[in-house]
Structure formats: structure tokens, C-alpha cells
Write a structure and sequence with these properties.
- The chain is of the alpha+beta class.
- It has a five-stranded mixed beta sheet with strand order 5-2-9-4-10. The chain has a four-stranded mixed beta sheet with strand order 8-7-6-11, with helices on one face. The chain has a two-stranded antiparallel ribbon with strand order 1-3.
Length: about 260
């Protein structure tokens, strides 16, 4: 018996070229797990270019049809409403960056029953905007397609000053988002930084909410890898976002532009 298994992988670069719906990835995972679990064969892997010339395989379409219908129903479930589009344009990934950093900070604090000083969200982890209108489960999956867990680490004020300085090079039109801090930049340089309205104390220990990805070697800010006393909040960032939208129902981004860029 010979079985051919087509595996499709997604990377950050390829998402720029392909606008694929989230449910496709879940169907692939289901199919891959089913085939592998029921077989003792060793599969060889080759790379194939995917383009419009490749037609739909009718047998595969028939196989996944039941999963597609169930998954589309789940993804189309309305969980909230956005009065206007929430996008990531502007310093610190704009209104969407502020919203995600705030959700992260609040979710970690609630799950671990602790006070969290700062929430940090990397710009590369924000994959889509939230359009005006109904917010569905699929909206959140497109926004956050990763299985990143949220957590908290301890960092010194000195380390956070270094983080904010590192953020300056890309902060004007994009850059990392934060919640709990107010930052001012000029010509890419940090000129002012406060946490909870107070000047940063260099020797003080602050509790920083972030994803496991940012702490365990990912992202553009190596200083976050140095955080101590890592504690998982026990849920993914996507689940935290889903919970937040379901609770709020009407989703409005924080109005306070806490990252400012002076000309």
C-alpha cells in the first residue's frame, strides 16, 4: 500500500504571499494526525511549489467536507462587535497593539492573581486587523493564529529601560506595543519612560506579561529572554483574546496613545 500525504507549512514570510483561511490549517492538522496515527509507514518529504495551476483534488475535497462544514460553523460564531475598525497603524502598532497588550496584561493578572506592571506584545505577532462590524471566532484566529501561551516574568527597571531603548528604531510607524507604560521618543531615541505613571526605578523588580515566544528566544528584543521566574498563566494568547471579546461584547481599543513620537 502506498500513501501520498501532502503537507503544507506556513511561515511568517509566506503569509505575505498567501491569504489562506484559518480553517485550512486546522483541517491539515486533523488529516495529518489521522494518517500518521493509523499508519506505520515512513514518509519522505519533498517541497512542491503551490500555484493556481494545481487543481482541487476531488477525493481530498470529499474527505474533508464534513470537517470543513463543522469548522466553518465554529469560525463564523459571532462573539462581539467592533463599532469601528481596530488597526495597527501608528506608534506601538497603533490601537490594535494597545488593545492586545492590555488584554495580555489583564489576562495574566487575572489568571495568576497577581499585580502585573507591564504587558509587551511584539508587532510580528499581530497578523490581522479587527474590521468594523461583527467579531467572529475566525476574526480572532486570523489575528492570532499561533499557539503562544501567555506568562509573566520578573525584570529589573534597568532591563526595561534597555527594552524601551531597543524599541525606538521601529517605533514611529510600527514597533512593539506595551500596556502599563507611557513612552516618548524623538528621532528614534527614548526621551521619557514611566510605568504606572511613575519614573522607572532601575533596581526595582517589575512583573512583565508576555508570550512564551518572546521569552524563549523569539522576537526582536533579546532583553526579554533574560526575564526571571517564568510563570505560565495556563492559557494561550488567542484564548485570552476570545475570552476578552466574549466578556466585553462591544470592543473598543484603549484611547490613550501611551507611545508618543515627537518630531
Amino acid at each position: 500500500m502506498q500513501t501520498n500525504l501532502l503537507m503544507i507549512s506556513q511561515t511568517a514570510w509566506y503569509t505575505k504571499a498567501f491569504n489562506m483561511k484559518a480553517h485550512i490549517f486546522f483541517l491539515l492538522i486533523v488529516l495529518a494526525k489521522t494518517v500518521i496515527a493509523q499508519s506505520s509507514y515512513v514518509y519522505s518529504v519533498t517541497q512542491s511549489k503551490i500555484d493556481p495551476s494545481i487543481g482541487e483534488a476531488e477525493d481530498v475535497a470529499e474527505l474533508i467536507a464534513p470537517y470543513t462544514a463543522k469548522l466553518q460553523a465554529a469560525m463564523n460564531q459571532v462573539i462581539g462587535f467592533a463599532p469601528k475598525t481596530i488597526d495597527k497603524h501608528g506608534p506601538g502598532s497603533g490601537a490594535l497593539g494597545r488593545l492586545m497588550a492590555e488584554v495580555l496584561k489583564e489576562a495574566v493578572a487575572k489568571s495568576l492573581h497577581i499585580k502585573v506592571d507591564l504587558g509587551v506584545q511584539n508587532p510580528g505577532g499581530i497578523r490581522a486587523e479587527i474590521p468594523a462590524g461583527n467579531i467572529t471566532v475566525g476574526t480572532i484566529y486570523r489575528l492570532m493564529p499561533f499557539e503562544n501561551e501567555i506568562a509573566v516574568v520578573d525584570m529589573t527597571g534597568q532591563q526595561l529601560e534597555l527594552l524601551f531603548q531597543e524599541m525606538g528604531s521601529r517605533i514611529k510607524d510600527f514597533g512593539a506595543a506595551v500596556a502599563g507604560a507611557h513612552l516618548t521618543y524623538k528621532n528614534g531615541q527614548l526621551v521619557s519612560a514611566k510605568i504606572s505613571g511613575k519614573k522607572i526605578e532601575r533596581n526595582k523588580i517589575y512583573k512583565v506579561a508576555l508570550t512564551d515566544y518572546l521569552h524563549k528566544g523569539g522576537g526582536d528584543y533579546p532583553i526579554l529572554w533574560e526575564g526571571k521566574n517564568y510563570r505560565s498563566a495556563g492559557l494561550t494568547f488567542r484564548d485570552a483574546l476570545l475570552n476578552y471579546v466574549k466578556q466585553k461584547r462591544k470592543l473598543i481599543a484603549p484611547k490613550d496613545a501611551n507611545i508618543k513620537v515627537e518630531e
